[in-house]
Amino acid sequence: MANLTINGKSLTLDVEADTPLLWAIRENAGLTGTKYGCGIAQCGACTVHIDGVATRSCGVSVAEAEGKKITTIEGLASGGVLHKVQQAWIAKDVPQCGYCQSGMIMAVAALLNDKPKPTDADIDEAITNICRCGTFQQVREAIHTIAAA
Amino acid sequence: MNKHVSPKMNRRAFVIGTAAVGAGLAIGLDLPFGGPAVVRAADGSPEIGAWVVVRPDDTVVIRIARSEMGQGSLTGLAQLVAEELECDWSKVTTEYPTPGQSVARKRVWGDFSTGGSRGIRSSQDYVRKGGATARVMLIEAAANEWKVPASECTVARGVITHKASGRSTTYGKVAEAAAKLTPPADVKLKDPKDWTIIGKGLLRLDTADKTTGAMTYGIDVKLPGMLNAAIKDCPVFGGKLKSYDEAKVAGMKGVKKVVKVGDTAVAVVADTWWHAKTALEALPIVWDEGDNAKVSSESIAKWLAEGLDNDQPAYVGNKNGDAKAAIAGAAKKVEAVYSYPYQNHATMEPMNATALYTADKCEVWCGTQNGEAAFAAVLEASGLPAEKCDVHKVMLGGGFGRRGQTDYVRQAVMIAKQMPGTPVKLLWSREEDMAHGRYHPITQCKMTGAFDANNNLVALHYRLSGQSILFSLRPEALQNGMDPAAFQGVAQSGEAAFGYSVPNLLVEHAMRNPHVPPGFWRGVNVNHNAIYMECFMDELAHAAGQDPLEFRRKLMGNHPKHLAVLNAVAEKIGWSTPAPQGVYRGIAQVMGYGSYVAGAAEISVTDGSKIKVHRIVASTDPGYVVNPAQVERQIAGSFVYGLSALFYGGCTVKDGKIEQTNFDTYNSMRINEMPKVESVMVPSGGFWGGVGEPTIGVAAPAVLNAYFAATGKRIRSVPLRDQNITFA
């Protein structure tokens, strides 16, 4: 059993301490917006916020995540209003297949939280998620649109 | 289908069990006295022809048979229907018919396959007719109600008006009456100049759920009582499963069952996938790897190299004049050998499918590029007849050709069949996905060009050696043994025609089929053919002491559409003016999937080994552009996929197995490596070409030719990773 705080809710989950957080989120908490892509913290599809820091949840164990504030893509909107990154993603038609976009959006939200007006260099450094469809151009444009708003 | 049954009973009886994922539609039939059958959607709203359902609130539901995997054709196909339907775009929604429903209705929705950049181009005619048919029926219903000639009625945005009497109504109000009318035998489609929805860069219809985590991909399917399976197939293709020691994992947490899957694989079924995967990794497995375990990249390369020899048999794909004689008598000749490796599709979402098997029914939920092929796989693996099977399509986390194959569907059914009544979701690990791809075929190519004394190209011999996809996947499509698709981009004519006129030409293919299974990988045979031909064209230009663009132009007089896109790219990148200091340019063109494309790159190179791509310009003439915003995204995306393959891709073989296991050994481009792609769309009309794939062909040769311009060094093999060349 583990106690995890996900999207503001305290959950007691029947899961082993060494299970990767990704699978606890997807299979035990039932939040499937966070995606499995590689399992080795390479692709970023499983990115969530742990205490506000964009983190690849496949590389963090349940034990390490206990007691911390976990936010998944399902918890990014607040009070029924989509986060500005989600809004920009819709307005700019960023996703193609969309599978990597939960992680991409979480990474971008954390970047903008740290640096509200990121430069291209900031984006290049912070956004290291793989997108096989190749949405990078739209991702970059949408980030700049948010920063300019 | 023409049975009289009460609508209520019928709707209930035909509802397909898709509550778990909320996708799909239900079909109801009712046959009113004296009229044709009215077919109803799940909510009871009537179909106005197979492609359109109109709800009482004026919502228009457009049926999409092809699959959406990010390429945007779900939205494009809806635009095609909506254009002719004259409905209100803001009230358009879409749904997938299931393959089972289609088969039961004599394939009323036609082909479900979504590959070869065919989604739009090969269904545009009949889906537009579907929209036009519904429009005619809806207008006729209003005219009947008003007792006026239909010809006096007009429609705009779903509102029908009879100007003379000042009356108007909406599609939603006349839908019931329209559904009872006999469809018109023939409809006239709009002149493209009158299009108002086609040609607009409208936002996609499927974006919102992709930003909130709500979109259901195959990996997200949940069914009551569902278990999860992890699988290992023999890592040597063609090898078999010999034995496994179930007792070693039977007591592990969550494990329900260990099952043999066909002759080659074993799966662990558990409460969660993590438990299934953990147990699978602990499961002792003995493989019978067979003779293929002796195969390596080196042995394959050696075998292919032998095929480059003129004495070996080869299929001729394009020929004029006598290339061999002209080369023998030429003033000067240039020769080069190129190669292209295996590539994995590496869709972000690994292969998966969820199956529920009972004695009299088998249903599968999955992302698939070919609903009907998946359906056929379910029939075959379950042993049940068509009326007892169905496939419920969900969003694909990438396809790129991989999900046109049905191996993972078949496996899911084979597992579920051993646990009747329990839904089982089979998910491949990334490692399994890397080990069991349907890889971009491996080839080599030897090219010989010959010049006369005035540096005119008089002959070209293009000799491919390597793998045929059709030999493995669609042998019935071979022509007397020859794979016509092997000549994509260098073919005599058709949708992938060669764009140059050379007086003596010989294009041939020595087929060599190693044991590694090939597949259709975005761009397919255009990828290597465009690299071989366009890089060698650059070599020929330099050998002749001519500008690569001017050299090409001289050979393209009889190929005006190929030339037009090349010129468009040259103009946009500023070929006639010098590049910025330290920046070098490369250019390429090819035809594929019915579209003409060209690309140009500006790069700089540090220390001969670090490449920065500053600029990419790409042009396409696909005949018509349905949604320019989506076409732009497909062009940019194809460059990310193509350049990822050039720099980082490449699957190698050792002991019969693929060596790369995950994104750490099979990397993919990141945002910092990718420049903006400037798209130039020059649709010339009169034909329908594809969009998702063609431009990938010019991505690698444009950069490779720029690399030569920068360094004087010619790269003739992929990936650059193996030559210690990386992104700056």
TrEMBL record, chain A:
Residues 1-76 form the 2Fe-2S ferredoxin-type domain. Keywords: 2Fe-2S, Iron, Iron-sulfur, Metal-binding, Oxidoreductase. GO terms for molecular function: 2 iron, 2 sulfur cluster binding; metal ion binding; oxidoreductase activity. It holds the Pfam family Fer2_2. InterPro entries: 2Fe-2S-bd, 2Fe-2S-bd_dom_sf, 2Fe-2S_ferredoxin-like_sf, 2Fe-2S_ferredoxin-type, 2Fe2S_fd_BS, Beta-grasp_dom_sf, Diverse_Oxidoreductases. PANTHER family: BLR6218 PROTEIN (PTHR44379:SF2), OXIDOREDUCTASE WITH IRON-SULFUR SUBUNIT (PTHR44379). This is Isoquinoline 1-oxidoreductase alpha subunit. The lineage of its organism: Bacteria, Pseudomonadati, Pseudomonadota, Alphaproteobacteria, Hyphomicrobiales.
From TrEMBL, chain B:
InterPro entries: Ald_Oxase/Xan_DH_a/b, AldOxase/xan_DH_MoCoBD1, AldOxase/xan_DH_MoCoBD2, AldOxase/xan_DH_Mopterin-bd_sf, N-heterocyclic_Hydroxylase, OxRdtase_Mopterin-bd_su_IorB, TAT_signal. Pfam families: MoCoBD_1, MoCoBD_2. Residues 212-291 form the Aldehyde oxidase/xanthine dehydrogenase a/b hammerhead domain. SUPFAM superfamilies: Molybdenum cofactor-binding domain. Gene3D superfamilies: Aldehyde oxidase/xanthine dehydrogenase, a/b hammerhead, Aldehyde oxidase/xanthine dehydrogenase, molybdopterin binding domain. One of its GO terms (molecular function) is oxidoreductase activity. PANTHER family: ALDEHYDE DEHYDROGENASE. This is Isoquinoline 1-oxidoreductase beta subunit.
